[in-house]
Fold:
Amino acid sequence: MGKKIVRSSCRACHGGCGVLVTVQDNQVIQIKGDPDCPVNRGWLCIKGKKYHTITHHPDRLTHPLQKVNGSWKKLSWDEALDLVAERFLSIKRDFGPESLVLGYGTGRDNEAFIYRFANSFGTPNVLTAGHMCYGPRIVTGITRCGNLPVVDYDGHPSCVIVWGANPLVSNPDEYKGLYLARAIRNGAKIICVDPRRSMVAKQADIWLRLLPGTDGALAWGLIHHIIDRGLYNEEFVTEHIHGWEAFCNRAKEYPLHWAADKTGLKVEEIMAAAEMFATAGPAGIHWGVALEQSVNCVNNISLLIGLMAMTGNLDRPGGNVFYPNPPVVNASQLGRHRALSPELKAKRLGNDRFRLADVIGVINPKAVWDAILTQEPYPVKGLYLISTNPVITRGNAKEVRAALEAVDFLVVQDFFMTPSAALSDVVLPASTWLEHDYVGDLWKRHGRVIARNRAVRVGQARSDYDIINELGKRCTDPGFWWSNMSEALEEILSPSGLTWKQFSKRGYLEGGRQFQKYRQSGFRTPTRKVELYSTVMERLGYDPLPGYNDPLEAPWSNPKTAESYPYQLITGARIPFFFHSENRQPGFLRSRRPDPQVELHPRLAEAKGIVAGDWVRISSPRGAAAQRAVITERVAEGVVAAEHGWWFPESKGDLGWDRSNIDLLTDNSYESCDPAMGATSLRVLLCNVEKAASPPF
Structure:
């Protein structure tokens, strides 16, 4: 076979970048950015350029496997699917459909198929990262202003607040770093909110180096100053905001001096940022997941939507906008969410506690672990985990592992044998994005879908969609499913009038660009206005106005714990070579970061006798992990910045799940989570550090 170039879209992270894939003899030999793709315009990160080293990695799972007496036995696909279906149906028959929980993590554009299976099977329980990643922005956006607002970089914002994000390194969800870079080049004012000196902070006009976990206090300080100085958009406030007076009265509870005290910032810094954002002209807020992994998750997002609205920057060119969807069957429609009966919805785990999460059908993970380990409120007997590695990526890793060991039947669908897959009864080999066709970005809010075209095949790996489609036909009414994936793709595209062949050649579809739609139809909320006083939150039994809670673990809020754990731990800074726990296999990407790293301020390192490269033991009241020291002033003296997602595929046996896994330190107790969304507080903890043996394992 000669060389060929396949036009596709990457999914090395959350995806969406157009790529040109050079293939020879069923081997990818080069991946480049597609200059004709409107999402990335030829730009491509290192993960995308080198993803073929993952697809063709010698340790890829290429056959279905069953654990028999502690050893792995190869199965044919029919054997594997029949076995899984038989066990799933026996769980449904003996315990009810709710006793099977489906789960996914990194969002490989597979969530619509996963929910379609769950809703058709009858289980209300889908375990996602959505309680603490993207989902809170979606449901809070829907609740407050009718949809998720995203920055309109094509509208040339004059000012951008980059809040809890580092898009010059990480490019998830709707955004690619090139848009922020272009805005900087074009002279946009940049305000960076980050306790760590990120690449964005280095280039910002104002860097607000707040104390970890105090984002909501900063937001209230900005809001208070904008109200106090009359810098809000009076027309928008009068015509399009519900609850303005009550919101202003709430803001009086959080004056500037209070915000400065909570955040560790100067009053003048907060005032300067408020005035820059409010007076710049079109301005947007580019937010990141750090805002969500907090006890203030919903408060934080609500306050930032308030900032967008009160300054008149919602659905305004260059502000935060709502892009219309392209003409396709969207993820919600494909997921068959209306198929689940009210009786089964009422059985969703944790829905009595985290009622806002229940609105979009996501659950807090601890509710699942409890149902396995305690059988309350009913037993969970089966787990079907797709593109997720919860032993490494969920709070309180010891409890997660205990639950996965205890569940009666565990199926894991992934690219590699991970610490979570190693505990399973059946492993199903999933294909990477280079190995299948799909309509990419079906779930995003940037108003586009992108063609993902298969470039190669590896072993017997099959796409998540194909596997779920085949299981669906075995476990539910076959009429809900398709004879093959080609039919599914045609149905997804049917509103556009395009066939898959036409769409794949075209490369993408885009919804129209329309702004200030609220002038004709209002916002998609019960009052048709931006609800700073939320009627939905009120109906659910929560405070309709945003508030503020101190982080549960901080030296000033928990002095007793701080006696033994005096430093503030932040986690989750993005690493260009990895995506959460993915890509740790030895090879090109892993060679760029062979060991986990923890950042320490020089004075802290000196006090502890730690030098660069030393292994450091990081501990919390819940556990400990080891990472290599980086001595840097990127972090403040009392802050410790550790990496997440670490395990060691080269280690035999337990795959090193408990060596450097920062989620051994995190708390997943219900009290530590956001009270409405159940978001786990992964980012702000108390810890101690000390020099460890080298290496400590």
Q: What stands out?
A: The longest helix spans residues 77-95. The chain has three domains: 65-133+330-430+462-496, 149-321, 559-691.
